[in-house]
Amino acid sequence: MQEREDALAEEEAGLDELAAPAPDDNPNEDDYYQHESLESARHRADVSPIKGERQTKSRLESSLTQVYIVSYLIFFSIFGVLARIGLQALTIYPGALVANTDLWANVGGSFIMGVLREDRLLFRRHWREHVQNAQKNAGSSPANSHRGLDTSDTPDQENIMDAARKSFTSARTGIPAYVGLSVGFCGSFTSFASICRDGFLAIANDINTAPISTKQAGVEFRTRPSGDSVMALLAVIILEVGLSIVALTCGAHSATFLARPAEKVPVLNLSRMLNPLIVVLAFGCWLGATLMTIFPTHDVWRGRVLFSIVFAPLGTLSRFQISVHLNKLVKSFPLGTFAANVLGCCVMGMSYDLQMSSAGSAILSCQILQGIIDGFCGALTTVSTWVLELDTLRLEHGYFYGACSIFAGVGCFTVVMGSVKWTTGFVAPTCSV
């Protein structure tokens, strides 16, 4: 199993959800902050030798694992989008403090990503195997490997645990459930495109605050100076990005804090039972939702959810493939995540334009466009991976990458949506009433 995980780790090294070091890369609380950058983690994976014969054998044996990974991505993308839509319904209420559509989802998904990157509980069976291998390679006795995260003050033991941690981080690519949770659920639960869309709407003074207003909305449009529009954009960016980064770190701290108590929980090997079950559930749920869209979907909530479920796996699988092939091209700039986020912004902007025009006058077309916005674009773009990359890249690279992503995303919406907003104007979509 170790050989298969190593081969998959090299083949899919572009997934930054798996390649990046943990946000809280200092579980022993040393005198100064020890943090490995994403670039150095990628370099270590690139120079790690894997024998050709073993790699060929592992790839032949990993075909079933690839099926499991795709199934987990489909399954968790569906539930990630459902969780985001459900959280919108809970957090958009009269008197709510902010009108940002997916603020709570972005914060929650980033928190879960932080937990997963530091986790030693959900996948402890794999973690202990890497501890045993590290002890074996170091020539020490694996008798105490059941202690899992327990470390001594000796340099040898610290080096063993550090080697096990790096090996376990690299090998997570071969664990279908971990790929499904991090790439599938967290990536679909969060939405980078919604941040950029809300940023443009803040510039255009068109954020809909009626659902959270405690007073009846008036019909009179209130203009404001351009400087106030800049402040509104900054408020959206600072609030969304800042809280997501804080949530990522808090999630990592929570996982580190719970690591030792979690060792008392018995280890269960559920993969043999869950993996085949997820294949049936994933494709069954996807097919079932697709068939249900054949029937009339005049109910706003039912139509929005069904079409979002249909389009969500397409967005997640597209982001997965884009990241696998493009992220490893430039170590200091995650090109795959950047391309997926920008592409999602463009598609969301065009869908929003169509929905706010005569094309969205029919309820069915309006619901399909809403499904593309919530399902495909929401799953194609991700905040959890993006803030993980910001946190683990070297400082100058992280700031450059973050600024380019924000400028490109908001710029796409400004061009695509602004050309309609400032010419013909928007009309209320049929499926919103």
Automatic annotation (TrEMBL):
Region listing for Disordered, in residue ranges: 1-56, 133-157
Domain of life: Eukaryota
Main subcellular localisation: membrane
Biased composition (Basic and acidic residues): 32-56
Subcellular compartments: Cell membrane
Comp. bias intervals (Low complexity): 16-25
Membrane association type: Multi-pass membrane protein
MF-aspect GO terms: fluoride transmembrane transporter activity
Compositional bias annotation for Polar residues: 133-144
Catalysed reactions listed for this entry: fluoride(in) = fluoride(out)
Keywords, alphabetical: Cell membrane, Membrane, Transmembrane, Transmembrane helix
Transmembrane segments: 67-86, 92-116, 175-195, 230-252, 273-295, 301-320, 332-350, 362-387, 399-420
Any one cellular-component term (Gene Ontology): plasma membrane
Role summary: Fluoride channel required for the rapid expulsion of cytoplasmic fluoride.
Similarity-based family: Belongs to the fluoride channel Fluc/FEX (TC 1.A.43) family.
Name the UniProt record assigns to this protein: CrcB-like protein-domain-containing protein
Species of provenance: Neohortaea acidophila
